[in-house]
Design brief:
Blueprint (H helix, E strand, L loop, with lengths): L8 E4 L7 H13 L2 E4 L14 H8 L2 E5 L15 E2 L3 E2 L10 H4 L6 E4 L2 H15 L4 E4 L6 H8 L1 H10 L4 E7 L16 E7 L2 H7 L6 H13 L4 E8 L5 H15 L9 E6 L4 H10 L13 E3 L7 E3 L2 H18 L4 E5 L1
Bound molecules: iron/sulfur cluster.
């Protein structure tokens, strides 16, 4: 059973105390007896304890930095959204393949931003510029935002903020089942709540520290009952002995557990496992015992932007994945929509 995230160590930037959320979080962790250290900037967070790289990495992932989002220029987030809305960075999960290992580099700790009103004002500006076209915001580009939100409720506020707009849409994805506080949010149908799912083998061996499949499915059913548009990202689709049966079991369980409310407007996004050479080095450093297969020889090289290519499955394997998933989705969710396979 994965417990809701609780940091072992908290850093707070002094300006965070000027914001109600900063003060609330300070008081909460103080009462709970969590060690709180003052820092002038998250870049000063250098003394994360640990005797070696792996210990420091693990400890960083249970460290929370409470600070401000200084740049209010949002990154783009094509193709699934126009912009990434910055609410937090980092994640307490330990998925061996996670891309945050390369994008966050030496700063794997979790940061939460307390200047939410400023972030919402920037989002309003972006919506205004595109109006009357809709503007989609993705909230999980740099973190698993749901996994932290039981502490901050920042995502909940964002759901309600976007819920009140005419042209805004929000989406995010999670591997955590701690969704109860989000069920009564006034989303007005403007948030698509997505769960990242995988078969039991992948969750067991490659996704430590995240909620198990049955927990995620149970949470998805609650979210559907709360009227949210629902989606699933099956990622990374990973070929291992028994993968066809593993993924069929996933779809079967989903079909058994999802309520009818979920079925009308259900989406699937399918993403095969891939890795880059720099990612392979980082993964092997962070998770030296990983079972994750990272053999370039077995894969097909796909040229990428900035000269960093990816290793994906061979063309025939990709065709097989597509066929098998299409078959399962037709069988178990004929009304749903596959957004893409990549
Ligand atoms: Fe990365 Fe998502 Fe796993 Fe967190 S839950 S470690 S963000 S893949």
């Amino acid at each position: 059973m994965v417990k809701p995230f609780m940091p072992q160590l908290v850093y707070i930037e002094p300006r965070a105390m000027e914001f109600p959320l900063g003060r609330q979080l300070y008081e909460k962790f103080d009462k709970l007896g969590v060690e709180i250290r003052k820092t002038t900037s998250h870049n000063q967070v250098r003394n994360i304890p640990g005797d070696n790289h792996q210990q420091k990495y693990r400890n960083a992932k249970s460290t929370l930095v409470i600070g401000l989002r200084k740049t209010l220029k949002f990154d783009t987030s094509k193709p699934s959204a126009e912009y990434a809305i910055p609410l937090a960075t980092g994640c307490m999960g330990h998925c061996h393949y996670c891309y945050l290992q390369t994008t966050m580099g030496s700063k794997p700790y979790i940061r939460t931003y307390v200047n939410t009103e400023e972030i919402f004002a920037a989002a309003d500006q972006y919506m205004e510029e595109r109006s009357p076209e809709p503007t989609r915001f993705e909230a999980s580009c740099t973190s698993d935002i749901v996994g932290i939100d039981h502490l901050t409720h920042t995502l909940k506020k964002t759901i309600e903020h976007i819920g009140q707009t005419k042209h805004g849409l929000l989406r995010f994805v999670t591997k955590f089942h701690h969704v109860d506080h989000l069920l009564d949010a006034e989303h007005n149908g403007r948030t698509r709540f997505r769960f990242s799912l995988n078969d039991d083998y992948v969750i067991k061996f490659l996704e430590p520290g995240t909620s198990r499949l049955d927990q995620r499915i149970e949470a998805a059913a609650k979210v559907a009952k709360a009227g949210y548009p629902l989606g699933f990202i099956i990622a990374p689709i990973y070929l291992h002995d028994g993968w066809r049966e593993g993924y069929e079991t996933l779809f079967k369980k989903l079909a058994e557990k999802l309520p009818n409310e979920a079925l009308d407007n259900l989406t699937f996004e399918l993403i095969q496992h891939r890795f880059t050479k720099p990612a392979k080095r980082v993964i092997q450093e962070n998770y030296p015992m990983t079972k994750l297969e990272l053999d370039e020889e077995k894969r097909k090289y796909k040229w990428g932007r900035y000269g960093i290519g990816k290793y994906v499955y061979q063309t025939e394997e990709q065709e097989e994945i597509k066929d098998v998933f299409q078959m399962y989705i037709d069988r178990y969710f004929p009304e749903s929509h596959i957004e893409y396979f990549t």
